[in-house]
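Give me the fold.
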Amino acid sequence: MKKIILLFALTCFLTSCNVTESIVFNDNGSGEFLVTYEMGDAVTAMTEAMGGKKSDAEKKEKGEVMDTTMVFAEIMETYKDSISALPEEKRLAMEAVKDMFMTMKMDEDAGVMDLGVGMKFNSIEDLKNIQEKIKKAQSLNGQSGQVDALKGGSPIGKFMGDDDNNVSYVMTDKGFSRITEAQVLEEGAESMEELFDPSNEGDKEMMDYFEEAYYNVRLTFPKAVKSISVEGAEFSKDRKTVTYRANWIEYIKNPMLLDVNVKFVDE
C-alpha cells in the first residue's frame, strides 16, 4: 500500500518522471515556454502496483491515443459562469494563468503520457514569475490538497524540489543566461546532501526510483551558439538549439546545476 500511495502522489504531482523545460525564441524576442512531464513510466508502475496489468486479450485491443492542447483563456470564456461560482482560491488561480496552456499526449500502447504547462510570450520579460504561474496551474488539480499532505508526511517530500526557488532569464544580443535564486537554508539546518539518507529504507526506495530521472533544459535561439557554460551540452546541426540535463536528485540538492550562460556567434 505504501508504494501505491507514493506512486499515486508522484503521478498527481507531475514529478515522478523526466522533466523538460523548453524555451523557443523567435527573431523578434517572442517565443514559447513549455515544461513537459514525461509520466509514462510512472503511470505504468502505478498500474502494475495496483494489479492493473493488461491481460493478453486486452493487449490485442488498441489503447487510447490522445494529443490535445487546452488554452486557459478559451476555457475561461466558455465556462465563465461556472468559473465565477468557484471558490475564490480556484478562481484567482484561473485568472493568474489565463495566458497559459496545458498539453497532453498519451499513447497507452507505447507507454507514453506527457503533460505540459506552457505560455506563449511577447518578450523575455513575460517569463518573470513563470514558476509561480506553473504552481498555480498545478494547483487547479482537484487532488492538490491530498498530494500536499502526502508530500509532507512521507519520504517523497524531499524529492519534490523547493517551490520557493525562483528562476530568471536574461536575453541580450550577445547571449542568454538562466539564473536560479535558491532559498538559503537557515543557520543550523541540515544541508541538502544530509537530507538524503541512503541507509533509510524510505529514502533508499525513492532514490532508486529517481535514479534514472532527469531535469532537461532545451533552448532554441534565432542565432547560432558559440559557447555554453555547462559540460556535456548537445547542439543541433545549426547550433541554434542546445540541450543539457541534470540528474533529478542532484538537481534537488543543487538547483543551480541548471544555470547556464550562453554566448552567441558574432554576426
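The chain has one domain: 2-61+111-264.
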